Amino acid sequence: MSEVVWTTIRLAGLTTVLLLALATPLAWWLARNKSWWKEIIAAITALPIVLPPTVLGFYLLIALAPQSPLMAPFHALGIRTLNFTFTGLVIGSVIYSLPFAVQPIRNAFEAMGPRPMEVAATLRAGPLDAFLTVAVPMARKGYLAAAVLVFAHTVGEFGVVLMIGGAIPGKTQVVSTRIYQLVESMQFGQAHKLAAGLLAFAFAVLLALFLIERRTARTGL
Amino acid sequence: MSGAATVEGRFAGPLGAFSLDAGFSFPAKGLTALIGPSGSGKTTLLRCIAGLIRLPGALRVSGEVWQDAAAFLPPHRRAVGMVFQEASLLPHLTVAGNLAYGMKRAGTAQTIARDEVVEMLGLGPLLSRSTANLSGGERQRVAIGRALLSQPRLLLMDEPLAGLDAASKAEIAPYLERLHRALSIPVLYVSHDLAEVTRLADHVLVMGEGRVVEMRKGEPGQGEADASLAHLSAEDIRSLARAALKAGLKPQAGGS
């Protein structure tokens, strides 16, 4: 039981770290670009919100399969497929939770307006310097919200994980898929423990988010 | 006027519906007021000088090329200090952090000392404060100090008093006068309020409809206006007259 919790935490933690890094340039570009067609990219990144997880999982299953052209370059390295592996799960989770990272960070960058970056430029900060010392710290509330949402959303994911992970104990089995298996095999006692744990976790996350929101509204920080 | 002791340039080009065609030259010392009605392009010209807007043209500050046909220095490579109309302090830093931001990046030749600036602008009691609870006048003083400590060779001020109430204006005015006396770098000071700048200005540039229509020395209404009119076209003179009237200048009895 602790094994499945550890796999879940590892998956969610790794996904969160990767997504914050990945979403940063994308969110900045979406916040700063003025063309209308950037909304096409925005819509694509938001797709996982509305797609059924089984649809996403199905396409991922195909993309990570041995026959997939995306996997061809890795055959030389001895990697034929990423389906039913932890790495595959991380890739799936990153795509599945992408909108939950991009949206809050993009909003924070947009709320900032162009002025702080102009100020930084007239104070001799080059673009990257200004980005790291002004834009990112000013958007820290967006980063915090993104981190909490991505972590929680990854813990809560079921469909994608089941489709491409296969719930192999110790490798790709996470809490949500474990509960499903337990119920299928009528082990309600075990299922209760895990389900109650997830319920408490979800509540704690939302409470933390609302408290952050409240503090921000009060202090502006 | 030309050579090492001047700030001279020209920017021309469309910017949305607006079109700028501004040539200017002013001495690289003292305070030069840039006046004109709102919408005449004062802020746009300032942003071009800072490098925040890129329009075709040329700019030379004390002999150093900031922009010409071949080169364009981005804003962070220009030794320019900019005071925006809203103080635009960086909210995630304290007052001291704001002051240090440009100073840290200004390189080795620090001719404007932090202690002097803190003293001159009365910033001592504010240093450890967050920027959130400062008054309008305090914010603008911090913004001025921050710009000065980035060791500029040209200080640009875009209507720094425009957003302030009368009390804050009165509070900040003595600091500006002190600054004006103490500074060795040129200041280009934008205002649409003639009364605000006549006391301080050593030189005056008048803008109207995207053009610099007059450059002159000293008090408005005196000095070298006639000489600078000589090379202007009839259209220039018409827009100058419009700009001057809008800016609140009155025709003089018995003038040329």
How do the strands of the widest beta sheet of chain B line up side by side?
Answer: 6-7-8-3-9-10
Mean pLDDT of chain A: 92
**What is the name of the CATH architecture of chain B?**
3-Layer(aba) Sandwich
Assembly annotation:
heterodimer
What is the number of independent domains of chain A? 1
Which fold name is given in CATH as the topology of chain A? MetI-like fold
CATH superfamily of chain B: P-loop containing nucleotide triphosphate hydrolases
* Radius of gyration based on Cα positions of chain B: 18 Å
Helix content of chain A: over 70%
Helix and strand string of chain A, N-terminal first?
A: HHHHHHHHHHH
CATH topology of chain B: Rossmann fold
Q: What's the helix-strand series of chain B?
A: EEEHEEEHHHEHEHEEHH
State the CATH class of chain A. Answer: Mainly Alpha
Residue share in helices of chain B? 25-40%
Percentage of β-strand residues of chain A: under 5%
Summary keywords:
heterodimer; A: 221 residues; mainly alpha; MetI-like fold; 77% helix; 0% strand; B: 256 residues; alpha/beta; Rossmann fold; 6-stranded mixed β-sheet; 4-stranded antiparallel β-sheet; 31% helix; globular
Q: What would you say this structure looks like, in words?
A:
The complex is a heterodimer of chains A (221) and B (256). The radius of gyration of chain A is 20 Å and the shape is globular. Chain A has a single domain (2-219), classed as MetI-like fold (Orthogonal Bundle), CATH 1.10.3720.10. In chain A, helix 6 packs across helix 7. The relative contact order of chain A is 0.14. Chain A has 11 helices and no strands. Chain A has helices spanning 2-32, 38-50, 53-63, 72-75, 86-112, 115-122, 127-138, 140-155, 159-165, 175-184, 188-219. Chain B has a single domain (6-36, 47-212, 236-246), classed as P-loop containing nucleotide triphosphate hydrolases (Rossmann fold, 3-Layer(aba) Sandwich). Chain B is built from 8 helices and 10 strands. In chain B, the strands form 2 sheets. Chain B has a 6-stranded mixed beta sheet, sandwiched between helices. In chain B, strands 2-1-4-5 form a 4-stranded antiparallel beta sheet, with helices on one face. The two termini of chain B are 24 Å apart. Classes of the chains: A mainly alpha (221), B alpha/beta (256). Chains A and B meet through helix 6 and helix 7 of A and strand 6 of B.
